[in-house]
């Protein structure tokens, strides 16, 4: 499912226009991004939670040449599925 298909599904399920569904989805995504950028955590009970974790700098290998390279430290987004989501998938 891509973004436009998700917007169509939200509009159909909620009985709202596609424009309203798009606005709601974009607001949700924007707020998730802003919260994570500030180092916060988002938790939707039953669905899952997003958090930010720091990944330390490390040495890696270039697979083409075999040379050692430095990989910079960075922050990564982590998602942990909730019990209801895992139950729906399995």
UniProtKB/TrEMBL annotation:
Protein source organism: Flavobacterium quisquiliarum
Domain of life assignment: Bacteria
Any matching Pfam family: Bac_DNA_binding
Gene Ontology MF terms in the entry: DNA binding
Keyword terms: DNA condensation, DNA-binding
Protein name: HU family DNA-binding protein
């Amino acid at each position: 499912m891509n973004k436009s298909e998700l917007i169509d599904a939200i509009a159909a399920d909620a009985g709202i226009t596609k424009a309203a569904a798009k606005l709601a989805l974009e607001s949700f995504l924007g707020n998730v991004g802003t919260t994570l950028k500030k180092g916060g955590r988002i938790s939707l009970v039953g669905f899952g939670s997003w958090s930010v974790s720091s990944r330390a700098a490390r040495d890696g290998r270039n697979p083409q040449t075999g040379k050692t390279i430095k990989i910079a430290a960075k922050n990564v987004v982590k998602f942990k599925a909730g019990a209801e989501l895992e139950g729906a998938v399995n």
